[in-house]
Amino acid sequence: MKLKDSCVVITGASSGIGHEFVKLLLDRGANVLGAYFPGEQCDIAHANFIGFPVDLSTRQGVDSLFEKALKHFEAIDVFIANAGMAYYEKINQADWNHLSDIIDINVKSVMYSAMKMKELYSSKPFHFMATSSIMSYWPLPGYALYSGTKAAVKTFTEGLQMEWEKEQHLHVVFPVATKTRFFQTAGQPHESWMVQSPGHVAEIMLRGLESNKKHIYPSPLFQLCYRFAPWALSFYRKREIKLLRNYYK
Ligand SMILES: NC(=O)c1ccc[n+]([C@@H]2O[C@H](COP(=O)([O-])OP(=O)(O)OC[C@H]3O[C@@H](n4cnc5c(N)ncnc54)[C@H](OP(=O)(O)O)[C@@H]3O)[C@@H](O)[C@H]2O)c1
């Protein structure tokens, strides 16, 4: 797709991958509406950028983002559901609210946004991109809940792809560990392995969007290991199991 003069909505725009992606979209000549969590600062100042603080973990929040977008744009050409969060934890108790908090933003908000795009544009062309994670198919200890939410995003988008029209493009992204404040928010005390920069991940997402790629894998190294050297990944996983056990002794 051509991004010049297109209208793009992206969530999680104030930090990490989303923030880098906004800059690339603006460089390509797109008009961007970037949503970010209320109270955050979004430092992007550009004639083609509008920032919108909104909590996307509620139906009202997502509805108001669409209202805002349709006030400013004739149509939404691309919706990028990127906002998300994780908990790093060993699950020892049943906590309904804790569960709801992560599912609301990582799953419901993404699914509802995709459903809204379809409702709005029926059989007209558009793009919908969702940020999943490699943990959607290769979970790590400490991230059982998070992995479950990202697996839901993965299979939901794959299912929708079979239902939507040919020109309604779905893209799902599978980043590996990325150097953002993600791990700090999650509460992981140690460094991860195979860490990429958010700029790199955003660049690969941009290329995937422009070339209509369905599945976007920012780390070829991880893909290589997954297929040809699973022992290397098992080794890493064992280290992660040990670390989690030590924290929760
Ligand atoms: N970093 C990684 O290692 C990694 C790996 C695989 C996938 N991902 C996924 O990549 C996406 C972007 O994450 P990132 O790494 O760029 O981390 P990040 O810098 O923490 O960005 C996530 C963004 O989502 C926003 N957000 C969270 N809850 C929200 C809510 N209820 N309403 C509105 N905005 C909300 C955050 O705002 P606040 O910070 O203000 O809450 C933040 O700006 C996420 O979906 C994440 O799961 C990240």
Write the layout of secondary structure elements.
Blueprint lengths: L6 E5 L4 H12 L3 E6 L12 E5 L5 H14 L5 E4 L14 H26 L4 E6 L12 H20 L4 E6 L8 H5 L11 H13 L4 E2 L3 H9 L1 H18 L2
Bound molecules: NADP nicotinamide-adenine-dinucleotide phosphate.
Brief account:
The protein has 249 residues and is α/β, with parallel strands linked by helices.
Considering the chains and any ligands shown, give keywords for the structure.
single chain, 249 residues, 7-stranded parallel sheet, 8 helices, globular, binds NADP nicotinamide-adenine-dinucleotide phosphate
Notes on the structure:
The protein is an alpha/beta fold and 249 residues long. The chain has helices spanning 16-27, 59-72, 96-121, 144-163, 182-186, 198-210, 220-228, 230-247, and strands at residues 7-11, 31-36, 49-53, 78-81, 126-131, 168-173, 215-216. It has a 7-stranded parallel beta sheet, with helices on both faces. The termini are far apart. Bound molecules: NADP nicotinamide-adenine-dinucleotide phosphate. NADP nicotinamide-adenine-dinucleotide phosphate (NAP) binds next to helix 1 and helix 5. Residues 12, 14-18, 36-37, 40, 55-57, 82-85, 105, 131, 133, 175, 177-178, 180-182, 185, 198 line the site of NADP nicotinamide-adenine-dinucleotide phosphate (NAP).
